User: Fold this.
Amino acid sequence: MTLTFTDLVEVDLGGLAAAVADWKKTVDGLAKSAGKARTGMRAKSDSAHWAGVNATVSREFIAKTAKEVSDLHDEANSVYQVLDDGHTELEALQKQIRQAVGVDAPHLGIRVEDTGGGRARCFFPHVRGDTDERTQEQLDARRELEDRINRIVAHAEEIDASVARALAKIHGNDRHDAGHSVYGSLNDAEAERAVELARKGDKMSDAELRELNQLLRFNSAEKDGQFATEFYQGLGGPEQALKFYGRMSLDGTGGQASTLRLDEVRDLQKYMGYTLADATDPDHAHHLPDSWGAEFRRLGTRPIGWERGQVNQPYGYQVLGGLLRYGDYDPRFLTPIAEHVTQLHRKDPFFFLSNNARGVPDLYGFNPSGRLGTGNDPLNSVLEALGHSPEASEKFFTQPPTAYNEDGTVKKGGDPGFSSYLDVFTDKDFEWTVDTNDVNVLADEDKTRTALGFGPQALGHALESATTGRPYDSDATADAVRHTEARAHLVSEIVDKFGEHPELIRHNENGDLDEESGPLSALRGSLGDITAEYMGDFQQAMYQEDSDSDLFPSFGAAADLDANHASRFLGEVGQDPDAYSAITTAQQAYTSDVVNHVINDPSHSTASLDGRVGAAVAPGSAIAGIMSDARAQAIHHYHAASDTEFNEAAAEKQKWVNRVLGMGLEKAAERVPIAGAPLEWASEDIQESVMKSIEKDTSDEAQAQAGTEYTAGREAALDSARAAVDHALLNNGTIDADTAEDLRRAARTSAGHSHSDGAQWKSESGKN
Assistant:
């Protein structure tokens, strides 16, 4: 019987708690009895001098009785451990769901309804006179709450089923014989069941595969790593784990697989990846030995087969790569694998594609998710892994590389032939592969171009992770992580690299121009996110502000950007709609924070307030000018995007308002919580201002031909500067109306000049 939403909300867990307490007493009592049986009658029996029938019958009976008492203790202890763990977890889940239903839902004006089958529905009740129109923020909140509630219920259902199954195995359905399955925790029972299912391989039914996924899903992030470690050890070792996943991934992506099977295998990829990350973390109390990493590297270049006479056996790294795409991996495990794969690719870009199936419909292979490739090229996979593993990616890009042999062992005293992986990936001779099984992909220019972008996109994700200290696709409310010197220096290297060689990331679809698109144009979206993260450093660079500036602070260590490289970098990156939106949003949020600081914080400066406000908006307005020019270039010169694409991308980048404002709230902490931060003073107004600015920063072909394509962008910059002053004035009741107008005027004037500066810098620096 399925556990329902109502069950979890209303059930009284007091009875279960009482049962746990009773079983604890039973365990303690049986422990004493077992001890007495062992040290008393069994010891006396063993030391006695038996004769006749007693030497066999009585001695054996006493030994069996003593063992049965010990077995009873083991059985009782297993029941207690399973019930205790189950009660603890269900109690925590019940607390979470009651918070969601009793506090969060009413706060949002939402009702929750049990729809049966272990599911619940969240909805806004109709109120007389209400238009029932909801903002996107309200709709997102409703969806998040519904997903959270159903996730809690699903977890509780898994706990309930696991406890029931474990109790049945402990008891064994034999009233006259104790001592069946023994568990030290509910984790032990769950791991045992997960391995039991996995050993069925592709013979698992869809329902059994879903059960395995649920077990992995809700136990793959435990802080002690017990379940994850027991699961992978239960599979038998690295090679057995690869064989199992390889078989299952192809089972789910083959031409005969149902949509349901594909969905379940996609979940298996995800949750096995999370579980592997948990199991390979050396800091957990339970973890796999270091030999697993070394063995994965050894198997990386060896064919892995799981059927007799199997043709096209994949290499170990091709299979492992599918798992590595999910999870935050410890650098001690992931970084050596990423280095090894990169060095193999650099030596022979097509090594792993030599056994690739061709001429068949595009199957997802060892990457059932289908994101950024089929998974035949493990380079894309390890870059995605780095994108989810900030500590590993930071070490990968900032520490001296280690040379590896083909078998994955460290090449003693070996020189890898390069000094940094950023240099490797940005080398003009570096070759990216077409990671797809699509039919005749090389004959289709669009398919080829798309597939060649998978690797650079994954590289962008890895660079985001390395420079921000967060997984590249982390939630918008994830903590902001203070920039270390290593991260900031990497940003400086990135800006120098693409500032000197903007052709690497250029995107050109204008057939009348000789300029070709760069091999790394697909990573511009990530470069835009990195720019937004380091907005303080970019604003410092515009007018050569000191890196230790109080007015334009960095968030942690300063990147010390070169001004010329920064302007050229911004001009090329800003031609991408997503990057443009991220940079514009972050710029306006950062500028608003700076203006608020000037107007409302105490200062010993003897300069005029209007002059200080003008200086505060200048760097951001210069960046706005560069963005206006970049947008015009993309639309009218390179034909790489449209106004519609720029405007549509803006809504997806509003997260940068709260993130940038959140960074300004705390000047010392290593991590700054964004969720729940007191940002209401400006966040919604700035988001609205950003949207208006982006929609206004546009021009048509006639304006471009007349050389007036920046007029609307300049007006948008003036409006943004004025809005920044207005936001700051909301917190200051001491400034009179005349002074307020002078501050707005100073901000607009400075913004106009700086916007023109920025547009001119880009136009002039772009001539190369």
Observations:
- The mean pLDDT is 85.
